[in-house]
Specification:
Chain lengths: ~240, ~160
């Protein structure tokens, strides 16, 4: 079988687009940054896509100028958990097995809260609980975008910029990038599985993969397949590395 | 083998968290299993074959037009010339199988969250473009796929929760 000799590179071509020409590191960084900005236009455009049909758990939040995003009822309990980590620790919650997700949301909300207070976004009539709730909601949106960034990172390494465009426009981004819901992690499960396989085949990054797996598993348990993929890659690549 | 064992240590934080939740905080850790029967549904439904037979077509249908387009792209690139077995292509197929298997065994969401398989199909297009030395065609297939997905995003809502 063909050895993945290019396992150390992207499988679908070069991410930066250097076609045999020497490329300066600063140019490469600039190009990658511009590419990320271009890819981010997809989720921003989705704010103006077709709104979901509302039901008892799914609501459309209008942002003005035709923009909107979907609000899933689960988000209520996520916001409560992120707002009150002490309560989250000691009471029964649907998000019990998402400790890293809740902790990250709580940490980011802690950074967002002073900004909201200073800018007085909700006005002077807003209660402290409302402001804290908004901070937690913003934190969940930031996590959605961090997951999107991770997906772009994986995609550029797996298949280069055309593949990243496929990922940026896919229905998982359309459906979940503005959802404030951990289902957004589905975006990186398949991509991460391929990337873990590539690292396993190349016999490298075991510790980094363990740390990444540990963190993402504590956010979303579907990442369990990443370990199986690393092991499969390791097994497939064993002859080639020997 | 050693590397796989190191990566398996990634399960440790979740295991420790489960133990802490149970033994220290005395709170249940099996919400998904209790509420939605995730994974444990298999115990009550031993006829896995019948479930698989109804779930698989549902999942394929759920993937929709982008998956069909990428599958056409894979066939077109595959047919270009004979293909030697390629480890990375096998890995992409394994990733798709793993996503499908996890989704099926999880049970509650069934076909609703198999969308990652479409990304695996497009990753296969990218890889085939490299090993068949047809990057131009592969790029065109992916860009048309991205355009198709964008058009679909503005034609119908993505979330239904039904």
């Amino acid at each position: 079988m063909a050895l993945p000799a290019d396992a150390r590179k992207v499988i679908g071509g070069d991410a930066g687009g250097a076609r045999g020409r020497p490329v300066r590191a600063s140019d490469e960084k600039m190009r990658t940054a511009l590419l990320f900005i271009a890819l981010a236009l997809f989720p921003i455009a989705f704010l103006w896509s077709v709104p979901a049909v509302e039901n008892n758990c799914l609501h459309t939040l209008n942002l003005g100028a035709g923009a909107h995003f979907e609000y899933i009822c689960d988000t209520n309990s996520i916001i409560v958990a992120a707002d009150r980590p002490d309560v989250y620790l000691t009471t029964s919650t649907p998000w019990r097995m998402r400790p890293a997700y809740i902790a990250t949301a709580a940490l980011i909300a802690g950074g967002v809260l002073p900004i909201l207070k200073v800018t007085d976004v909700l006005g002077s009539q807003a209660s402290p609980a409302q402001v804290r709730g908004l901070a937690a909601g913003v934190a969940l949106l930031i996590i959605d975008w961090l997951v999107f960034g991770a997906a772009m990172w994986f995609a550029l390494r797996i298949g280069g910029w055309p593949f990243a465009m496929v990922v940026a426009s896919c229905d998982l981004v359309h459906g979940f990038i503005w959802s404030m819901h951990p289902a957004e992690f589905n975006l990186i499960i398949a991509l991460g599985a391929i990337w873990f396989y590539m690292q396993g085949a190349a016999g490298r990054y075991a510790v980094r993969c363990a740390v990444l797996l540990g963190f993402v598993l504590c956010c979303y348990q579907s990442a369990a397949i990443w370990w199986a993929m690393y092991a499969a890659g390791s097994w497939m690549g064993r002859g080639a590395r020997a | 083998m050693r590397n796989s064992a190191i990566v398996a240590l990634g399960f440790l934080p979740l295991v420790l968290w489960s133990l802490a939740s149970t033994l220290v905080f005395h709170v249940p850790v099996s919400y998904e299993a209790d509420q939605y029967g995730q994974f444990v549904w298999l115990l009550d439904h031993p006829d896995i074959g019948a479930h698989l037979a109804s779930w698989f077509p549902q999942s394929v249908w759920w993937l929709g037009w982008p998956a069909l387009w990428s599958a056409i792209g894979i066939v077109a690139l595959w047919r270009a010339e004979p293909l030697k077995a390629d480890r990375l292509l096998i890995g992409i197929a394994l990733a798709a199988a793993a996503v499908l298997a996890f989704n099926f065994l999880q049970g509650f969401y069934q076909a609703r969250l198999v969308n990652g398989v479409t990304l695996c199909l497009f990753a296969a297009v990218a890889r085939l473009g490299v090993i068949k030395k047809r990057r131009g065609e592969a790029t065109a297939i992916m860009l048309i796929g991205a355009a198709l997905q964008t058009v679909l995003a503005f034609a119908a809502p993505s979330l239904t929760l039904q």
